[in-house]
Amino acid sequence: METLKLLFLSLALALTAASNAATARSIPDHIHPLRPQLGTSAGRRIPGLNCLSWRLAVEADNIQDWTVVPKECENYVGNYMLGLQYRIDSKFVTGSAYLYAKNLTLGKDGKDVWVFDIDDTSLSNLPYYAQPDTAFGAKPYNDTTFTVWEKQAKAPALPATLWLYKRLLRLGFKIVFLTGRSETFRAVTVQNLHKVGYTKWEKLILKSAEEKAEGLHALQYKSRERTNLVKAGYRILGNIGDQWSDVLGDNVGSRTFKLPNPMFYIA
Ligand SMILES: *[C@@H]1O[C@H](CO)[C@@H](O)[C@H](O)[C@H]1NC(C)=O
Ligand SMILES: *[C@@H]1O[C@H](CO)[C@@H](O)[C@H](O)[C@H]1NC(C)=O
Ligand SMILES: [Mg+2]
């Protein structure tokens, strides 16, 4: 109920904001209010409109294997990530996940699991990506600087995901963290998770040195690890991540939830 209210409140806020914006642009009132209000049809170019299309294509997985945010969308992505919309979008995802989860009847054997990705799902690397030399993904990925950031173990929790995590625990789910982070980062990852409120889990699966050497794509690696979970008798009822490679492949789970992330693409 609480979540439903939250969802409707978010929706109401979004709708109010939209109608205020429309009023502010003073659409002549003899024209039907549903006429297109944005675009080039009125002879005006609206900055950021193409970036909105770009982000939609990213989130729908219609464009793949892109390496950097288009230069002209750097500010757009920055505004999105630091603004209210990213938070509302994330809450909408985890709110929907909770509505699904609380409706399930779990087994009594403790084998019902929910898979969580870590980076930009459970933990937010936004403080790193907001730096000028990263520019919300408009600058190429730099493994050296990202590793330095990771080792500092100071990533905050993504609030919407922490909220879902706590509620899933209360419902009796077992939590499995499945991350492309290297096994050598286990200690800093545990430290970071604990620090921000993720204190309990069934498994924390990181990429072993052998898996790293195999050079598997995230999708293959995560598929394999989820298959191992299923072979071990776990039932994956839910799975949440910020990349399509978190939620596609084998044994993805009964339902998957994709958080927004317009800053980078991991195949
Ligand atoms: C909850 O379960 C009922 C009965 O199985 C189903 O009809 C309904 O769609 C479910 N709701 C959600 C949000 O999954
Ligand atoms: C990554 O960042 C480091 C430290 O700022 C810099 O020395 C290096 O040239 C960068 N690497 C690339 C590929 O840009
Ligand atoms: Mg991730």
From TrEMBL:
One of its GO terms (molecular function) is acid phosphatase activity. This is Acid phosphatase. NCBIfam families: plant-AP (TIGR01675). Keywords: Glycoprotein, Signal, Storage protein. Belongs to the APS1/VSP family. InterPro entries: Acid_phosphat_B-like (IPR005519), Acid_phosphatase_pln (IPR010028), APS1/VSP (IPR014403), HAD-like_sf (IPR036412), HAD_sf (IPR023214). PANTHER family: ACID PHOSPHATASE-LIKE PROTEIN, VEGETATIVE STORAGE PROTEIN 1-RELATED. The keyword Glycoprotein applies.
